[in-house]
From TrEMBL:
PROSITE patterns membership: SULFATASE_1 (PS00523), SULFATASE_2 (PS00149)
Protein name per UniProt: Sulfatase
Stored CDD domains: G6S_like
Family: Belongs to the sulfatase family.
Pfam families the UniProt entry points to: SGSH_C (PF16347)
Length: 521
């Protein structure tokens, strides 16, 4: 099934080439990079971080990257939403500078300077396969094959230069297959390569591969201590609509049906959306896999608390089953690299576009500057350069990825990139004294999905200050004494000095990053 590609944007000329600084290296010695990025993969769901959820559902292959290289403990995004995070990674710039501040922006400006273009101009073969979600066509890539919009889990559409075609199979497996095929036969093997392998998973609505429908059917995931958070003293948290037991769609998200022995999903704004790409036989097997569990739910009356916790378990069972396929994919790629000998000179990165809530504060989704969604888990291996077991504790951010990869490849970093290279942090295994002490964050998408108020903020090692500027509400947290961010200290007695210091640092960062004041009110 083919359709003409119509993305609505005119292609603009490339920016002038940036000269590669070879630093005495030959192309054969320059590292390849495989940048594996999933969608909405919470740190809590990667077992290398030691969270109780990861102990129930481990991720041995993702862990393997960190065990053979580095684990990042303080890596963050600059805007916790899919498209803007991807734009920041491509450009090394905050959202207001790269122009993609919201998911419903007009489209990423593909004419601007980007990481793949700079790598191309430095002699690299470049490719992106999987989720793009930036509306415009990819630029700077020798090969691209992207999912249509968010992509579907089952039998997804892939867009190429010429058309849009349905591909039979499970999306995570297909992306893995196409990445290996490109590395085998699609690239110029006389050049080092940069491959962006972008998974659709683990994005909502969490449809596992058929082999994993029942993987965690009997698992019992630990309920977060603040699952029933009342949001006292946090106005923006009170106003959100991303609560698992109140706002999650019972049909689309939780695969709940109308009653015992029913095969009709409960109605919601996207009824049967994900099932629409399945064949009749695939739909039958899907419903068969969930029927007994759904029937058990409807077999007796349940209290509010019982329903709320049943929904949490269903959410985690499906979410972690999607994680399982991504982890298998990572293992397949690592094995492929070893099998082909590419492992010796290939940097492998695994990360996600932002963090995600797995029941903390009663939530799913992201957007807030709170730690679970602000944080981006990441592991990286580079044989001969990163010592196995390295722990990176310095503050890093997704705007740093582009300058770091350029630095690792011996290509000069443009002065207008706002991120900084953390190559020294991973190679030396320690944080320099002059490393940054704070991070800037800005979320713009309000009014919008989930009703999360627009806000900006500053994070330092211990304290975090946020300003929800539409309503002029401030929040201040001591992450040492209150890591779950339950107690807003803004305006409390004794917090005057640190509040003044944080506001001054926030103003300094906004000036340094040239944030227009009209975007801050």
């Amino acid at each position: 099934m083919n359709h003409k590609l119509s993305l609505g944007l005119t292609m603009l000329p490339l920016v002038p080439a940036v000269q590669a600084q070879e630093q005495g290296r030959q192309d054969g010695e320059r590292p390849n990079i495989i940048f594996i990025m999933s969608d909405d993969h919470a740190q809590q769901a990667m077992s290398i971080y030691g969270h109780p959820i990861g102990k129930v559902a481990p991720t041995p292959n993702i862990d393997r990257i960190g065990q053979e290289g580095a684990v990042f403990w303080n890596n963050y995004c600059c805007n916790s939403i899919s498209g803007p995070s991807r734009a920041a990674i491509l450009t090394g710039k905050h959202s207001h500078k790269n122009g993609f501040m919201k998911n419903w922006a007009l489209g990423f400006d593909g004419s601007q300077q980007t990481l793949p273009k700079l790598l191309q101009q430095g002699g690299y073969e470049t490719a992106v396969i999987g989720k793009w979600h930036l509306i415009s066509k990819p630029t700077g890539f020798d090969h691209w094959m992207i999912l249509n919009d968010q992509g579907e889990y089952c039998n997804p559409q892939f867009i190429t230069e010429g058309d849009t075609t349905i591909h039979k199979g499970y999306v995570t497996d297909l992306i893995t297959q196409y990445c290996e095929e490109w590395m085998d036969n699609g690239r110029d093997k006389n050049k080092p390569f940069f491959l962006m392998m972008h998974h659709k998973a683990i994005h909502r609505n969490w449809v596992p591969a058929e082999r994993h429908y029942r993987l965690y059917e009997h698992a019992k995931f630990p309920l977060p201590d603040n699952y029933y958070d009342a949001y006292e003293g946090r106005y923006a948290a009170q106003m959100q609509k991303m609560n698992i037991y109140r706002d999650m769609y019972e049909g689309h998200d939780l695969k709940m049906v109308a009653g015992i022995d029913s095969d009709s999903l409960l109605f919601d704004p996207w009824p049967h959306a994900f099932m629409g790409t399945m064949t009749p036989e695939e739909r039958r097997r899907f419903l068969d896999a969930y029927r007994d569990r759904n029937n058990e739910f409807y077999s007796k009356p349940r209290s509010f608390k019982e329903v709320a916790e049943w929904k949490y378990q269903r959410y985690l069972q499906d979410y972690m089953a999607c994680v399982a396929s991504v982890d298998e994919s990572v293992g397949e790629i690592l094995d492929y690299l070893k099998r082909t000998g590419l492992d010796k000179n290939t940097i492998v990165v695994y990360t996600t576009d932002q963090g995600f809530y797995l029941g903390e504060h009663g939530w799913f989704d992201k957007r807030f500057m709170y730690e679970e969604s602000f944080g981006m888990p990441m592991v990286m291996r580079w044989p001969g350069h990163i010592k196995p077991g390295t722990q990176v504790t310095g503050l890093t951010q997704n705007i740093d990825f582009a300058p770091t990869f350029l630095d690792m490849c011996g290509i000069s970093i443009p002065q207008d990139m706002q991120g900084i290279s953390f190559k020294e942090l991973v190679e030396k295994g320690k944080t320099p004294r002059d490393w940054r002490k704070s991070l800037y964050y800005h979320y713009y998408e309000f009014p919008g999905f989930h009703s999360v108020r627009a806000h900006y903020g500053v994070k330092m090692e211990r304290y975090k200050l946020m300003h929800f500027y539409v309503d002029d509400n401030w929040e201040l947290y001591d992450l040492k004494t209150d890591p779950e961010e339950m107690h807003n200290l803004y305006g409390k007695k004794g917090m005057e000095k640190i509040t003044t210091e944080l506001k001054a640092e926030l103003a300094r960062l906004q000036k340094e990053y040239d944030v227009p004041q009209e975007l801050c009110r």
